[in-house]
Task: structure prediction
Amino acid sequence: MGDRPIKKGEILTIQLDNLAYGGETVGRINNFAIFVPGGIPGEKVKIEVSEVKKRYGRGKLLEIISPSAYRINPSCNVYNECGGCQMQHVDYEEQLQLKRQLVIDAIERIGGIKGVNVLPTLASEQRFYRNKAQFPLGVKKDGRGNAEIITGFYAPGTHEIISNEYCQIQHPLINKIVRKTLQVLNDEQISIYDEIHHTGLIRHLLVRVGVCTNQAMLVFVTNGYHFPEGKNIAKRVMEEIPELVSVLQNINSQKTNVILGRETKLILGEERIIDYIGELEFEISAQSFFQVNTLQSRILYDQVIKYAGLSGHEVVLDAYCGIGTISLYLARAAGVVHGIEVIEQAIEDAERNAVLNGLENLFFYSGLVEEVLPRLTNDGVTFDVVVVDPPRKGCHENVLKVFGETQPERIVYVSCNPTTLARDLAALQEHGYQVVEVQPVDLFPHTYHVECVVGMHRKDT
Ligand SMILES: C[S@@+](CC[C@H](N)C(=O)[O-])C[C@H]1O[C@@H](n2cnc3c(N)ncnc32)[C@H](O)[C@@H]1O
Result:
């Protein structure tokens, strides 16, 4: 074990210093980091060492010796078993403060950038904020061998389903649809996917809600195409819940942890549901990305507009544009907006959404940003302002390189992962940009996730 100062099974008392990306707290013994789930920075705790790696360890919380003033009783019954939320035991104001600190730590430690102005995290007003949920299905047997289809979330680090039909961060309509669907699936004795043997039919339920319209979508993710009962099941759930206007089947026959397959077929009702962000109307399909906290997205996008500093004439890039939500926001204040997105269905939605909102100054391209962007710049398109909103892994290095070569005046970076954000900000600094301000926005209360909008200027402006 060399110079590791802790041993598996050892009982230790440690001081917890900070929150790590992932929701665990971190304490140190002789500078050796130990991750502890369920703690709060500032607490002194007793732990049992559960894992020892070369550069860090992990501990199970046994006792809180001096509790934080911000520790509260989580209101969810399955909080301690379920892996969906990580911060329900922390007072909400303190969650916001810890998330801001997480962003500062990442920018300083990973990005190596000191003294950046990180503003206080903007709070989310909404409880039950999630407009989309993907639930795994499983079968529970009682002592007499009776089988019941259950759903919920996976316990942390496992594929064990913790049964929960009343999740406190989901929109109430999602919980209602899931409960009714489970009842119908149990009535109809539909077979459930078994991931070990790769047998059985239904793998996941995906439910989406238009928060401003109260329209809902239900997607059955199936192992294979054959689902003749689909129409009857859809009818039964729709009859009971009139807000459910769209029922689809997504086919995923692969042995994979990826939830959705490539193909989606309509079972009953509409192909898409509608929702609003501010005054803009969006049609959303099953596979397209749409921010999960609808009302808070408006706050996020207003911040993007502020940092974009548009005067009505600029040529703007919206890279990783999804169904064009940010693009349409920008288009109302810019000369022209070019949006790039890899999912073809999302680009179809984006084009439809531009028409729906009467906006004509937009061009959308389906493909990888790292491939489409160099083609656009080679064709002579130059951008005054660039907005990027990449997935968790951040921007491809070639995308940042193109910005270095073409030098747009301002860059607005929207990020859902402070660690890759910090890495990319450091690269953009190398390419001639300076961070003006960082605004964390809480899109995901009670989880460790934090969204950030970063305003950057070219150093010579
Ligand atoms: C965080 S979402 C942002 C979507 C949109 N800006 C919004 O606010 O709704 C990231 C999007 O990037 C897309 N994406 C991921 N990797 C990509 C790539 N290399 N090139 C283009 N799009 C990509 C995803 O499909 C997803 O729609």
Q: What stands out?
A: Residues 132-277 form a domain with the OB fold (Dihydrolipoamide Acetyltransferase, E2P) fold (CATH 2.40.50.1070). The CA atoms of residues 377 and 406 lie 8 Å apart. The chain is about 25% helix and 30% strand.
